[in-house]
Amino acid sequence: MITKEKVIDSLKDMPVRFSIDQLIDKLLFIEKVESGLSQSVKEEVFSQEQAREMLKKWSR
Q: Does the pLDDT at position 60 exceed 90?
């Protein structure tokens, strides 16, 4: 989950004029990075070999 502080920091980094789509894209990106980092800390990740095996199964 994204914090109010991160939203405010994101707004400060935006140009003076921007579209709501640009802001939403930036916030979604930040949220996804935060989520990925959290998963990594919790060791909820796949090894490169596990990912290769999953891709092989999916691409059949």
A: no
